[in-house]
Amino acid sequence: MTVIHDRQSNPAAGDEDRPIGYGRIQRKEDPRFVRGKGHYLDDIVLPGMLHGAILRAPVAHARLVSIDTTNALAHPKVVAVITGKDLLGLKLAWAPTLSADVQAVLVTDKVRFQGQEVAFVVAEDRYAARDALELIDVEYDVLPPLVDARKALDADAPVIRDEIEGRTDNRIFDWEMGDKAETDAVFAAADVVVSQEVVYPRVHPAPMETCGAVADFDAVNGKLTLYETTQAPHAHRTLFAIVAGIPEHKIRIVSPDIGGGFGNKVGIYPGYILAVVGSIVSGRPVKWVEDRSENLMSTSFARDYIMQGEIAATRDGKILALRTHVLADHGAFNATAQPTKNPAGFFSIFTGSYDLAAAHCSVTGVYTNKAPGGVAYACSFRVTEAVYLVERMVDILARKLDMDPAELRLKNFIKPEQFPYANKTGWVYDSGNYEAAMRLSMQLAGYEDLRREQAEKRERGELMGIGVSFFTEVVGAGPRKHFDIVGLGMADGAELRVHPTGKAVVRISVQSQGQGHETTFAQIVAEELGIPPEDIEVVHGDTDQTPFGLGTYGSRSTPVSGGAVALVARKVREKAKLIAGAMLETRPEDLEWEKGRWFVKGDPSVGKTMAEIAMGAHGTIALPEGVDGNLDAEVTYDPPNLTFPFGAYICVVDIDPGTGEVKVRRFIAVDDCGTRINPMIIEGQVHGGLTDGVGMALMEIIEFDEDGNCLAGSFMDYLIPTAMEVPDWETGFTVTPSPHHPIGAKGIGESATVGSPPAIVNAVVDALAPFGVTHMDMPCTPARVWAAMQGRARPPI
Amino acid sequence: MQISMTVNGADVTSEIEPRVLLVHYIREVLGLTGTHWGCDTSNCGTCVVLMDGQPVKSCTVLAAMAAGHDIRTVEGLASGGTLDPVQQGFMEEHGLQCGFCTPGMMLTARALLDKNPHPDDAEIRQAISGQICRCTGYATIVRSVQWAAAHPAGSGLADTAAADTDTAVPDVAAETEDTEVKA
């Protein structure tokens, strides 16, 4: 195997270990984190700060009869107890969601899911606030809950959202993409059609740090400072202005260091609003930090798609068409975080990496008595579900045709020369060389040898499975005319200032939760201006200090904000050119750029470095006509398209035939995200996402019993992989730049979470082939695998 | 009640409620917020500190139970401005992303290396199996601990300023484990 270290060879880029620009450099974030000097939400302590705690509903569906707060208010350390009735007076009992629905901040009429917010206690300390919760008396009139999404549209199903005038059922939306008639015609004429219900069960992003807020309302100035675990501080500021009626210039949102987000921290939770109300009511700062159970039971879940998939092909393995209907369980409130025009996110990318003649999908969203959410956990707006569906269906087709699943994929890939490729549901894929990535992955895996090993093991009754998944992601929402969140176009701003001594500050609108933005955004500026990354400070997460933008999720930071940062640096470079011309008393068009320096064409010895130009810009030289002083710029970047990274994954599992336990022995991941800013960070992103995949495929599920009790409300039941359940990852890469992106870079963060579950499940099903198993749903726990081995595979919901 | 203990080499005495958890005592009374709190069922290990050299989940120890004991937190890992090799290793091998699990992971690694200076990968995975990381997928954490094992304190190699990457010594053995191959 050839090992090629991905390091810059251009000396102008700095030495190999310390490139001035792209490359494997250590993170600027690490020194504070390894010393315990990060600054996370719960580390914040303000003078006079109080603590809030939420009383939550013990049942899933019930009329609220009464709340008695007398005893809680009598607690010596309790400052306030807020109920839904109080919020009604403030017009804050309901808050708009990111999906044009509303969500109850505190229950006023009835409880709609277990763990829902019922009352808020504000007390002198954390322990007292919790004590007081037990002193609140609530009377409920329990109603029959709706748990099974398959029954949500039955005539006798309880109507969950009966507070909405005229609503008589639980249907949220119907949405479709593609040409139904064309697709049906292709299916009718196809040699082979395979159908399968494929379920992506409800899971939870479960970041290690839960959600929380510290609200500090200054009554004298009317200014609200709100520290929050938020991935989208600017969008929150606008929403708080709308929700709370506080003028937007009087709201400052600060998102400190975040202990992982994974899509859990995009939306506004009732706890944030309650902290604000608590601060307004008490006149003191109020901190609210949820515990793990609250996080798992009440904050944004992920997935919960029941997909009826169909795939059509010729007998010799040409895939012709895909169609599917999806039943989407959205819980009690439609709080799904996604662009306004996309109620099922980007699910229509379910045509995958294949050149199809036709495709059609339809999605029906329904209410159930469960927590809201849906889009989270590195899903790129439902791409996890889309990729899982197509990659399962292709595998099932391969089995039906008795073809190797890798060969079937290779036969049907969109070819490099077909890009930009318009698929049948309206996406234009930017670039791709799928075969190269697939071949590399097979080479790294030793695919032929693995198949031989498998055949030998089957002879001996051992259960070994090889799973292949090839995915096309769609990340970087997105062009303003097509994509908005609650009316806010999905562009991102960037501001760059070069100080007189040549050090720089770049302010960005996206918000890292561990993805290394403080390092990689400095690298983008470094590449464009030749200033070393350590001389560039990246500022993010404070709405008073950073330009407007939509935040970090959907792997959009590099595609959108990364584009903005490259462009703002180029704008500064052009301004520097004019100033250098003045300093050198030459025409700017006679200057040439080399990294970090403008020099006179034909005379490289005469030039000015960025530091010299920066000093000149702030000094006393006569500036050219139309050039103002200082060396800074700002831009807002409206991307022309999204980016479409891709990957080829191969998973090898061994299953214990006596217990049904699945062990992931090897996992080979080849990713292509175009230009690679920092290979070390990309590799870490991939490793983390692959671990998500092992969790979802083998362990994780949020289940409910028939009474609507959440059965995975803690880490005792909601199982997340430890170091024991995952292998040492094997990664590789190809580079197919995005032609429309300023630096050719595509997003990557969610690719592995999107691409790995189908590889693992395909491997499990492959291992179980001797038992006649053609499909099983996640999670592939020992009990569920055992049932599948006995011919009793069942969907989890 | 009044309790006294040693935290990072300093004697501390406080008046607390008997029910106060050690994690809250460390964070809120002592102001040492490097120790984190990630679950309520003792599973995640973000709260791990060393008590008399042994890793304990400080969410599952009452502060009162720690009275009279020697506690070491992430803030006590570096000495005199010199990082512990474990801290350096996590930076060299990208063993952290959001940083939330990192303090607990590093303290467990320190306890492991004190007992077993040359653990194999399986021993490292076993040692950190009571701790959850959501970002890294663990492989780079294993490599970080191996880096620390290969560069013990006093060897001179770990004696670098935190932000100084000039002395980055790639661990060839570890790098080839996760083979990066370009087409």
In short:
The complex is a heterodimer of chains A (about 800) and B (about 180). Chain A is α+β, with helices and mostly antiparallel strands and about 800 residues long. Chain A contains 18 helices and 36 strands.
Which helices and strands, and how do they pair?
The complex is a heterodimer of chains A (797) and B (183).
Chain A: E1 14-15, E2 18-19, H1 30-33, E3 50-56, E4 62-68, H2 70-74, E5 78-83, H3 84-90, E6 94-96, E7 102-104, E8 110-111, E9 117-123, H4 126-133, E10 137-142, E11 171-178, H5 180-189, E12 192-200, E13 212-218, E14 223-228, H6 233-244, E15 251-254, H7 270-282, E16 286-289, H8 292-298, E17 301-302, E18 305-313, E19 319-329, E20 358-366, E21 373-374, H9 383-401, H10 405-412, E22 421-422, E23 428-429, H11 434-445, H12 447-459, E24 463-472, E25 484-485, E26 488-489, E27 492-498, E28 504-508, H13 517-529, E29 536-539, H14 557-584, E30 591-594, E31 597-600, E32 603-609, H15 610-618, E33 631-637, E34 646-655, E35 662-672, H16 679-698, E36 730-733, H17 751-767, H18 782-789
Chain B: E1 2-7, E2 10-15, H1 22-29, E3 48-51, E4 54-57, E5 70-72, H2 85-92, H3 102-115, H4 121-127, H5 139-150, H6 172-177
Parallel strand pairs in B: 1-5
Antiparallel strand pairs in B: 1-2, 3-4, 3-5
Helix pairs in contact in B: 2-5, 3-5
